[in-house]
Specification:
Elements lengths: L5 H9 L14 E7 L19 H9 L1 E3 L2 E2 L5 H10 L26 H7 L3 E7 L14 E5 L2 E5 L22 E6 L9 E2 L2 E2 L5 E3 L18 E3 L8 H14 L7 E6 L20 H23 L6 E7 L6 H9 L20 E2 L1 E4 L8 E3 L3 E2 L2 H9 L16 H4 L12 E4 L5 E5 L2 E4 L11 H7 L9 E4 L15 H16 L7
Helix pairs in contact: 5-6
Length: 508
């Protein structure tokens, strides 16, 4: 009698809830939709007081699993994107955003999620906002000049860059087969980039006086630099939506694919298209959020139209919490983008990094499920590697936990993560462990809140050298328990320092 193979025995032991039951021909397609500056409270399904309708994302949550305690690595843009794509806390590499014409955030040794999926036979594409840098083919140093109260500033003009050359160090050099986008909507060059070249060379200069279009809010977000004459920021979101639909329509059912759709919304400049004006009760930002929800709906519809929906795993989340304009929005419209959490973008208070997180995979992940487990976006890499049976190279995904047991309702030890680290500015860290939040400074604030907002919410300053909060009892982080639980403070500070000194927080 022929004995069963080792693989067959494993399948019998673990049952079909195991990821081993998915053969190569059944590997799921993967779509990650990454919003920009979207707060936890902007999603109607998790904020009963929301003034913004989000029917498509609400429906995605009803058909998938929603995490109520998910976090980005950082309270700002580039670091969070790096962390998501590498499974590694950004601060192990560097801090801060990539500026206009900045070099790549990545180190040569970094292994990315699309590279791992490529090795498993996936076709990969990035569409939208990159904001992780390129090696630009400069001809000379910036020749543009403008003067502010702080002195003279320099910027690149069209003649300073060789637009005929390939732009290295971008998506194609980090695991993506295809790229289309504008790089970063409020950073030059204001031009479309396809793969590693601009489609049309910039021939004009963007200034605050020469945007070319009236912006609803946040025109000051535009940086000076080269642009294509006639470039229109209102074209960006519709164009990215159309490109995503087209790319999905080109995919074949016999080859799995990974689409990373990084939206520039609802980040400022606030530029909802006319058909979305007045669709919310939270001003122009709310209308831009409605359009962001619409884009997600269009992508999901494209999956259905092309017969791809049943075997596509869709993740929706955001790079960080809402921008500082949220304080004004709260007072003017009664809409709280951070929900019940303290803080906004850049803060290590919860509002800076506590973000929406939805994952859907029909018939595999229980529809309508809500998990209260603390997770991080760095977990996406190890989780998708497990689901797709993709090998993680040594020293990669050093902070990424496999959360698939949560997704497939398998037994696991809770909390699944030992702890989760958030960081935005130099030397200020937050450590989340279960219900506890530890901050290693006397404040988790970076963006100053208006006095009226603090009074309304009962927010006060703290005097202790570090902070400790019980988020189960105090999600708004009003009561500092530093003095009451000194042993917990010491233990969490020790663990944070351990993570910072060693090159990993979890080993694979």
């Amino acid at each position: 009698m022929q004995l069963p193979s080792v693989k067959t025995l494993l399948l019998l032991l673990v049952g079909c809830s195991s990821l081993l039951c998915h053969g190569k021909e059944q590997l799921p397609n993967i779509v990650i939709i990454y919003a920009d500056d979207m707060g936890y409270g902007d999603l109607a399904i998790q904020n009963e007081k929301s003034k913004i309708p989000t029917p498509n994302l609400d429906q995605l949550a009803r058909k998938g699993m929603r995490f109520s305690d998910a976090h980005s690595s950082s309270g700002i843009c580039s670091p969070s994107r790096y962390a998501l794509l590498t499974g590694k806390y950004h601060w192990r590499r560097k801090q801060g955003i990539v500026g206009s014409f900045g070099k790549p955030f990545f180190a040569q040794s970094d292994v990315t999620l699309p590279q791992v999926l490529q090795n498993s036979g996936y076709k990969t594409a990035a569409i939208g906002k990159w904001h992780l840098g390129w090696h630009w083919p400069f001809i000379n140093k910036p020749t543009g000049r403008f003067v502010t109260k702080k002195g003279e500033n320099k910027f690149y003009q069209p003649q300073d860059i060789d637009w005929k050359k390939a732009i290295k160090g971008g998506p194609l050099d980090h695991g993506f087969d295809y790229y289309f986008g504008d790089g970063t909507i409020n950073f030059p060059p204001y031009a479309w980039i396809e793969n590693d070249r601009v489609i049309k060379a910039p021939n004009a200069v963007m200034t605050m006086q020469n945007i070319g279009q009236k912006v609803k809010e946040g025109s000051w977000e535009f940086r000076m630099g080269p642009k294509v004459e006639g470039w229109n920021p209102y074209d960006v979101l519709p164009t990215l939506t159309k490109k995503s639909q087209q790319w999905l329509g080109q995919q074949k059912k016999d080859q799995p694919f990974f689409l990373y759709l990084a939206l520039p919304s609802p980040h400022a400049p606030i530029i909802p298209n006319k058909e979305f004006e007045g669709k919310s009760q939270a001003g122009a930002y709310g209308d831009f959020m409605v359009q962001t929800d619409w884009v997600a709906g269009q992508v999901i519809d494209a999956l259905k139209k092309n017969g791809l929906d049943d075997n596509t795993l869709v993740i929706f989340t955001s790079d960080n919490g809402p921008e500082k304009y949220a304080y004004q929005r709260a007072e003017q419209y009664g809409h709280y983008s951070s929900g019940d959490f303290r803080g906004l973008k850049r803060d290590v208070y919860e509002g800076g990094h506590h973000v929406p997180f939805i994952i859907k995979w029909p018939s595999k992940i229980q529809a309508g499920a809500v998990s209260t487990e603390v997770i991080s976006q760095v977990d996406i890499m190890a989780t998708l590697a497990a689901i797709t049976q993709s090998a993680l190279p040594k020293n990669s995904a050093s902070d990424s936990y496999d959360i698939s047991p949560i997704l497939f309702n398998q037994k696991y030890h809770s909390p699944l993560r030992e702890a989760t680290v958030q960081h935005t500015k130099k030397d200020t860290y937050a450590l989340r462990q279960g219900k506890w939040l530890f901050i290693n400074k006397k404040s988790g604030q970076h963006t100053k809140a208006p006095k009226s907002y603090n009074q309304q919410h009962g927010y006060k300053s703290f005097q202790t050298g570090s902070l400790l909060f019980d988020l189960a009892a105090d999600p708004g982080q009003r009561t500092n328990l530093h003095a009451k639980y000194p042993e917990k403070v010491t233990a969490m500070e020790k663990l944070l320092n351990k993570y910072r000194k060693q090159s990993y927080s979890v080993q694979h």
